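G.,

No rush on this.
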Amino acid sequence: MISLTQKYELLTKLPLLQGLSGKELAHIESVIGMEVNEVPAMRKPLIHQNDPCTHLIFLTTGKLLRQYESDDGLFTTKTVIQAPSLLEPHNLYGLDCRFRCSYTPLQEVSFITVRKRDVMQHLMKTDIFRINYFNLLSAIIHKKDTMLQPRRNNTVSQKIVHFLQRQFADCDGQAEIAIKMTDLADYIGETRLNTSRALNQLEDANIIELKRSLIVIPDIKKIL
């Protein structure tokens, strides 16, 4: 159980809450609670893809495995999220309020969850939180818009890199995607042979590592 002082120190470091005064944090904490909940490491997801997104969730300590399965079931991705972080804040509102990924604790983690109603009734009334939230949403939209812009990919390697960029635009560190060679070739509109050659070239350049039906990207920054 953390002390009140430790709790305020933790809150000041969380995304969206940075910049709030001690008085504002104390008021929010007294109204909403902002309780820190601890969860042990698990083998199964704590949050499943397509679960309703009804809370603003702060990951305050620990690491989560983030997994995504494509709608057609032809590939899955895995990345690791480290605290402090937010879990899909852009999906709290909109036409389809569901988590796009599954999240599994890799170690003991802790969360602070805030109901959507409390976000609207309390957090959004604070100027700094509102500005932070809008800036965050704008950054997410900008990244997604950039990935959707048409590109002249003259080589097969460029097509593969662009495909990977679209999957990991908001990620850091290491990532991996489980996909069959034939499916990747179909996605980028190339032959299996050309796709295989391009993947080997990317591996020779130390951009990716190839395993059976698995592409590992040691450092996302190399493709972004």
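When you get to it, here's the other one too:
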Amino acid sequence: MRNVVASWSGGKDSCLACYKAIQRGFRVLYLINFVYRDRCAFHGLNPNLVAAQSQAIGVPLIQREVFWDTYEDVFKATLTELKKFGVEGMVFGDIHVRDHLGWVNRVCGEVGITPLEPLWGMNPEQVLREFMNVGFEAIVVNVKADLFGSEWLGRKIDENFLKELKELKGKRDFDMCGEYGEYHTLVIDGPLFKKGIKILESRKVLVNGYWKYWLLDILKWEFKERG
């Protein structure tokens, strides 16, 4: 098996998983992203921003619109369609949430696609450190309001971020990598990217959804060409 696609949220875990799959010799033909009510599912990103990531990386993006009651059907239909183009596997950024791993294994199995989980079983802090050490850059774009204040939005994933995250974890119980939706990130540069993304304009918005969260609504951006 060589030809795969990558589940792509725009954040650090899916990006690192995609990178590790490529390092292991897999050929990523497409990035797969799902959109719910004009926003990328789960992360709340502008879909055009994820399309910009795809352009910056140089791997085509497939985006599909879903609703919560159609998500699985659209997911399976997309993979079934891609099998016609030689896709044999799909890369995911799961780390330790067994319920989601079970869902991935079941759904991929039903359509005859092999799931690849390069991050599975890693320590969450190890994931963050590897992400930083290989040279990726990301910012925080979404945080649960009962855990984080709006000042966390826009912060870079770096040593200071990791230090303060560990300090906060000593006071509150949450997953260091945000596996349960505690926070989400946007990757803006790194070894997968042919050019970086520079954020020009954004605003902080408090959203009342399934839970209350702060969102960094990114309004304008541009590419940073390599020198």
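The mean pLDDT is 94. DSSP finds six helices and ten strands in the chain.

Enjoy the weekend,
O.
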